[in-house]
Amino acid sequence: MAINAAFLITLRSEDNMGLMDYFKPVPTMTAEEVRQFFTDKKPDAYNLVDVRQPGEYERYHIPGANLIPMAELRDRIDEIDPAKPTITY
Amino acid sequence: MRSRSAATLLLGLGLSNVYSMEGGIKAWKGMVAHGQPKSGMAYFMPAAGAEEIVGLAWSLEEGSKLFYQGLSAQFNKDREAQEMFEWLISAEKNHEKNLLQSYEDLTGKQPDFTKLRAKFGDSLSGAIMEGGIAVKEALTWLKDKGVPDSLELAMSMEVNAFDLYIKMSRAIEDEQARHVFAKLSAEEQVHLKKLAALLEKKF
């Protein structure tokens, strides 16, 4: 798993996120690393979240992914178990 | 890119251990599932009795078994394909056996098969067949197609079943039933690997 030095820049400010939070690197995984990650894990050992829209999800999605469209994430955060690792795509 | 923003948002909301997958779903090289988030799960309410859930799963497996029996009969001239379908048929029978055992463990009795078939019958086949096709329609469609097409359709069916079982193994409240579906989803992965290997050969 590589921590990419890829910084997010946005002009909107969110809740208690300071501006500096936007410059933190986002941990990422390659698709192959994600596939490896699932291979030896039980389905309930991680959160896999598809953040696209319902139409996109319906056309195709990664097996076992739960759909929480980007705009609904904040309201539906309780659907994500904080005790488990979370992968978004 | 949405996923990175989503990961940032989740981290900002206090979640730890969050990762964004690079390249999005376009970078995904494995199989993909189709259908709405709750597709097939409408029949499986999380708080439904384990008995009902296991009965429903049995019906799904029955549909798959019938599908493979139809394919085995149709492609009886292709020995490799036939062996694959016969293997899948015995795998489905094994699933059914385990599900029936779970049913008996949970309820202390054998299920009423006539009732199961009448209650869940053909309508459930749409839950796991691609594009909502029932088993009969799929076999009719495959009548003038070759082995690769049937393997592809079989794989679509298996991956959608896999998708459904994973979600169910998370959502169901009853721990025993949850365990049953975790096992089923692991076995679906094995089916998929074997189908993919044969498909590659046939192409």
Q: How many beta-strand segments of chain B?
A: 1
Give me the secondary-structure category of chain A: alpha/beta
Number of alpha- plus pi-helical segments of chain B: 8
What does the largest sheet of chain A look like? 3 strands, parallel
Helix coverage percent of chain B: 55-70%
Order of helices and strands of chain B: HEHHHHHHH
| Strand coverage percent of chain B | under 5%
Overall body shape of chain A: globular
User: Percentage of helical residues of chain A?
Assistant: 10-25%
Mean pLDDT of chain B: 81
The pLDDT mean of chain A sits at 80
Q: Approximately how much beta-strand content do the residues of chain A carry?
A: 15-25%
N-to-C CA distance of chain A: 15 Å
The whole-angstrom Rg of chain A is: 14 Å
What does this structure look like?
The complex is a heterodimer of chains A (about 90) and B (about 200). Chain A is built from two helices and five strands, in the order E-E-H-E-H-E-E. Chain A has helices at about 30-40, 55-60; strands at about 1-5, 25-30, 45-50, 65, 85-89. Chain A is globular and about 30 Å long. The two termini of chain A are about 15 Å apart. Mean pLDDT of chain A is about 80; it is low at about 1-15. In chain B, about 65% of the residues lie in helices and about 0% in strands. In chain B, helix 2 packs antiparallel against helix 3, helix 2 packs parallel to helix 6 and helix 7 packs antiparallel against helix 8 (about 175-200). The longest helix of chain B has 29 residues, at about 80-105. The interface between A and B is large, with 51 and 45 residues.
Highlighted features:
heterodimer, A: 89 residues, alpha/beta, 3-stranded parallel beta sheet, two-stranded antiparallel sheet, 5 strands, 17% helix, disordered N terminus, B: 203 residues, mainly alpha, 8 helices, flat
